[in-house]
């Protein structure tokens, strides 16, 4: 009875929608056996078959993503259990096609099993109340592992992973994260970040891989390949996200989401290329930059979202907004007078789905109104919905909307700890070493001190269980701190933990060495911005005080950015461990005691002074200062020491003449000339002696990573695409196209150079 009344009501609605939209759906369709449900049919045919059955209301619902909170508790922020009436408003009434957990939006208890039960329940409600049984897609930020989940293994944040220069490792990490997320019913990961690190004041610096687009792009693409790999555990596939498109990472004053001023030449030649490898790798979705670029919010920019993203860069997937960003076109940027106008602006610019995230009815009503008034063409809606349906079909969500709750805990809990340890160890950069490292495991007394020596929360950083990091009062995810790692690595040593400066100095008196571990408070987005990206006076004071005892002092920096070091710069040994995740303490100890020979190389430039920002090695030539570009770092991009020594021969080129779209093969011989096995990162740069438009003194074009036994010598090759050297032609107005100038160039590897000519 109830069911038939509901059917009648739905039929009436559908009939009404048909009148308004001209959609071809007619009445209730019994879903089983429809051709769009035939998994063997080509995806495009399934998409068209489903699309033509959909009403406009169903279409705009698919274009909407709403946060978990709206389905549970008090249908707002209260994290209570899922509630039927809350779910009805979002999933049945507004027909919403996607739900997200923003940072910290987890079920209670926050276990993998509870996640799987929750996403299954939401999926079931959605399917049971979707006329055409269109599955929803659940998204979350797995930015360093499935990092919202308390028991998940958390990998180093991206800035540390950038220091590995290891794409294969990123692929494995992507696979691991994807496996964990899929096991809990999350098939959309809002990662990796493809923004480039250019300003240490920015609170999201640690979320990026590198200041260089080639390094960042290669690592991000490998991560995408891993995340999106075909599952072997029977679930649907997962889609990764390239974010935040584009120009987000350089707010003009370092503050998150402050408008960026990016010359088109810079945007085109430096910022956008970091995204291209992910588009080429088939990343399923893109998230749009919350900020404004050159006076236009990215969410309203047809130039960014259509001309660049689609027409020039060839992205074919779904473009989603960032959190609430269509509303911000009204409330923050004031480029639209009201929500309806903002919706039309964003959708016409190229937005396919809105991370609304709270007002399902408001967004869908605004979108419907826009279509009905003619402000948004119906074909734009169809284009967006096609992309969304295609994604859902390609992931296999129609066939596999649910996950096995019985498996979730076993797959996620404590998974891949060895991989996390390897990633953290490879992330670790030995910045300075006067010979104190590696420490002997037979060391007598070791003092361990500093604000981050025994702090899991600081070591994990933001986006760990909670948005701003592990929330106060939350249980701590299983983490090995540096203090614990050192104790485990040197069980016979007298490891003394000193909580205060006075204690550290007193204990140092009869110690063999002091390890000072310094970090920063966890945080995310604007909350993590700083106008002083430097070690604090107290941190420098602690290091000064223990150094004054005359004992060797090893400083370990667990920070999300290269903090200006001040007096710490010339400590006996300096180790950058970034935000190393769950196994960070074991990995740092591996490096300190030499179980691992450090191989990390800086993916960013380490500034000498706060005033250096924004900062990168590829600053344009012309400054009347050091190296003609004002680049005078404490430690340069690519720097990193080892416990062994290496040599690199001068580069040899496959050909001294190349076409403008050609490839250049570079060969070098590398050798480990020291007494320990080690791994060498070989960056390959290009220098352009003369250019019509300013170019940096050198640009990274490729790299490789070579493991060499003590005494081993090996020939290696790096091939790069000459198009990496493209520069937007034209005058100050950058009116030309990006093109590779004909003429002479030099490949630079280590101290060696080789000339080639582009014809
Ligand atoms: C806002 C952040 O900018 C974005 O990176 C994240 O994916 C979304 N919130 C969802 O949590």
Q: What is the residue-averaged pLDDT?
A: 95
Tally of DSSP β-strands: 27
Structure class? alpha/beta
How many structurally independent domains?
3
In this structure, how is the largest beta sheet organized? Answer: 6 strands, mixed
Beta-strand content = 15-25%
Q: Please tell me how large the radius of gyration is.
A: 27 Å
The unique ligands bound to this protein are: 1-deoxynojirimycin
CATH architecture of the largest domain: Alpha-Beta Barrel
The CATH topology name of the largest domain reads TIM Barrel
> Span between N and C termini?
78 Å
Strand order, sheet with most strands: 11-16-15-14-12-13
Low-confidence spans: 1-30
Tally the helices.
Answer: 22
Query: What gross morphology would you assign?
Result: globular
Oligomeric state of the chains present here: single chain
CATH homologous superfamily caption of the largest domain: Glycoside hydrolase, family 3, N-terminal domain
Q: What's the CATH class of the largest domain, please?
A: Alpha Beta
């Amino acid at each position: 009875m109830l069911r038939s009344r509901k059917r009648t009501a739905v039929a009436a609605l559908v009939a009404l929608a048909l009148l308004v939209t001209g959609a071809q759906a007619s009445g209730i369709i019994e879903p089983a056996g429809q051709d769009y449900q035939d998994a063997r049919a080509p995806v495009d045919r399934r998409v068209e078959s489903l699309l033509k059955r959909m009403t406009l209301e169903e279409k705009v619902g698919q274009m909407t993503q709403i946060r978990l909170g709206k389905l549970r508790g008090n249908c707002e922020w209260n994290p209570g259990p899922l509630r039927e009436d809350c779910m009805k408003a979002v999933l049945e009434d507004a027909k919403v096609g996607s739900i997200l957990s923003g940072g910290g939006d987890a079920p209670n208890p926050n276990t993998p099993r509870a996640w799987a039960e929750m996403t299954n329940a939401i999926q079931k409600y959605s399917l049971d109340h979707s006329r055409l049984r269109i599955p929803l897609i659940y998204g979350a930020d797995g930015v360093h592992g499935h990092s919202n989940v308390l028991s998940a293994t958390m990998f180093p944040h991206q800035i540390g992973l950038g220091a590995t220069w290891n794409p294969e490792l990123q692929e494995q990490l992507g696979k691991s994260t994807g496996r964990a997320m899929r096991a809990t019913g999350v098939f959309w990961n809002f990662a990796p970040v493809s923004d480039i690190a250019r300003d240490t004041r920015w609170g999201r610096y640690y979320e990026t891989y590198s200041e260089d687009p080639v390094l960042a792009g290669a690592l991000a693409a490998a991560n995408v390949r891993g995340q999106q790999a075909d599952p072997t555990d029977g679930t649907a596939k997962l889609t990764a996200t390239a974010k935040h498109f584009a120009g987000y990472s350089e707010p003009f004053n370092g503050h998150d989401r402050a408008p960026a001023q990016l010359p088109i030449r810079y945007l085109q030649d430096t910022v956008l290329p970091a995204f291209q490898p992910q588009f080429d790798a088939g990343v399923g979705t893109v998230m749009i930059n919350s900020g404004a670029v050159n006076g236009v919010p990215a969410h309203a920019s047809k130039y960014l979202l259509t001309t660049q993203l689609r027409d020039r860069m060839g992205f074919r997937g779904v473009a989603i907004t960032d959190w609430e960003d269509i509303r911000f076109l009204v409330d923050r940027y004031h480029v639209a007078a009201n929500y309806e106008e903002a919706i039309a602006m964003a959708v016409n610019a190229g937005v396919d789905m809105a991370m609304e995230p709270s007002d399902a009815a408001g967004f869908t009503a605004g979108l419907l109104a826009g279509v009905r008034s003619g402000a948004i063409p119906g074909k734009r809606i169809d284009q967006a919905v096609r992309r969304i349906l295609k994604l859902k079909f390609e992931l296999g969500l129609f066939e596999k909307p649910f996950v096995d709750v019985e498996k979730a805990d076993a797959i996620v809990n404590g998974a891949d700890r060895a991989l996390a340890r390897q990633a953290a160890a490879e992330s670790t950069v030995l910045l300075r070493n006067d010979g104190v490292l590696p420490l002997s495991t037979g060391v007598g007394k070791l003092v361990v001190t500093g604000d981050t020596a025994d702090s899991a929360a600081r070591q994990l950083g933001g986006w760990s269980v909670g948005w701003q990091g592990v929330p106060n009062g939350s249980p701590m995810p299983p983490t090995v701190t540096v203090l614990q790692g050192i104790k485990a690595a040197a069980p016979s040593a007298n490891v003394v933990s000193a909580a205060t400066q006075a204690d550290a100095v007193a204990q140092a008196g009869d110690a063999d060495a002091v390890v000072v571990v310094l970090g920063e408070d966890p945080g995310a987005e604007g909350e993590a911005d700083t106008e002083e990206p430097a070690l604090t006076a107290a941190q420098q004071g602690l290091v000064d005080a223990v150094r004054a005892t005359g004992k060797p002092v090893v400083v370990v920096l667990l920070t999300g950015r290269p903090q200006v070091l001040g007096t710490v710069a010339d400590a006996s040994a300096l180790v950058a461990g970034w935000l190393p995740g769950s196994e960070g303490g074991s990995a740092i100890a591996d490096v300190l005691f030499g179980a691992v020979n450090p191989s990390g190389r800086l993916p960013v430039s380490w500034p000498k002074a706060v005033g250096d920002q924004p900062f990168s090695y590829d600053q344009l030539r012309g400054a009347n200062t050091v190296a003609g570009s004002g680049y005078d770092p404490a430690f340069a991009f690519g720097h990193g020491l080892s416990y062994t020594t290496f040599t690199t021969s001068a580069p040899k080129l496959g050909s001294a003449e190349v076409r403008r779209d050609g490839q250049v093969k570079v060969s070098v011989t590398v050798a480990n000339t020291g007494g320990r096995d080690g791994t060498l990162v070989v960056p390959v740069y290009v220098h352009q002696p003369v250019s019509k438009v300013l170019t940096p003194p050198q640009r990274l074009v490729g790299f490789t990573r070579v493991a060499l036994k003590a005494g081993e010598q090996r020939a290696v090759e790096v091939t790069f695409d000459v198009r990496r050297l493209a520069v937007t032609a034209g005058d100050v107005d950058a009116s030309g196209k990006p093109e590779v100038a004909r003429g002479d160039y030099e490949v630079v590897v280590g101290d060696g150079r080789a000339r080639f000519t582009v014809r």
